[in-house]
Amino acid sequence: MTITGLRKSFGGIAAVQGVDITVPKGRIVAIIGPNGSGKTTLFNLITGMIPADEGSVVVDGRELVGLRPDQVYAAGLSRTFQTLELFRPLSLEDHLLIGMQRRSRVGLLAACLGLPRVRREEASLREAVRGVFRRFEDRLTEDRWGDRADSLSYANRRRLEIARAVAAEPKVLLLDEPAAGMNPHERAELTAAIGALRDDGFTILLIEHHMELISSISDHVVALDQGRKIAEGTPREVLEHPRVVEAYLG
Ligand code: ADP
Ligand code: MG
After folding, report:
1. pTM, two decimal places
2. Could you tell me if the CB of 8 is within 6 A of ligand 1?
3. Alpha carbons 199 and 26: distance in angstroms, whole number
4. What is the Cβ-side half-sphere exposure of residue 177, based on CA atoms within 13 angstroms?
């Protein structure tokens, strides 16, 4: 994914001021920056949730700027949210089946109606669901797959949200503060799960502020401040960069 000159102002606030980021295939790129530096806005621009004023986002040769969120999703981008976005009454398994609609040939309506062609595909979908849950098997255990999403702990709901995004087999997976609200042990587990996704070939753009998570799995780090890129490089180069240190202290 190649982001070039992305720009967005809200009235007088220049939230994203011409940002360039390259996310190579099969790599993890992390975005860091103090509160209000434009990280979530950047995700909203990439996913078409808010229209960009200027700039380009290209995935596999396709321009995404100007597309609606559903078109961006269909083009192969899945995201999670800083604040959880789950369908509370639905089961864990249903969440993953919904996540798989992008790669499924049968529509969501057909799936809900249980049409015959759906049943043919269902066995392979269930197998795929199993495969995704296996990535989080220490926590999203099989006895829980039929439970409602709102029966889960906060940390498990975050895992489910990531699992749903992974189920779509996106070309690029966007994670907005996936470790928010987790304790150090849960964070370490999640770090390993995200690293394993990359090792399996997923391309990941990640917003995080937990430095140990960033340092241990990011291939490349981009630091934003007030909507501009102020540093990029290896985790160490960026975390020690004087402008980054200053942005966090100031
Ligand atoms: P971060 O995720 O890095 O904390 P945000 O992208 O949420 O930062 O916000 C960047 C700036 O843009 C902030 O000044 C914020 O108040 C502003 N902003 C974000 N979204 C909107 C919006 N929908 N309307 C107006 N201002 C917004
Ligand atoms: Mg944010």
Report:
1. 0.91
2. no
3. 7
4. 14
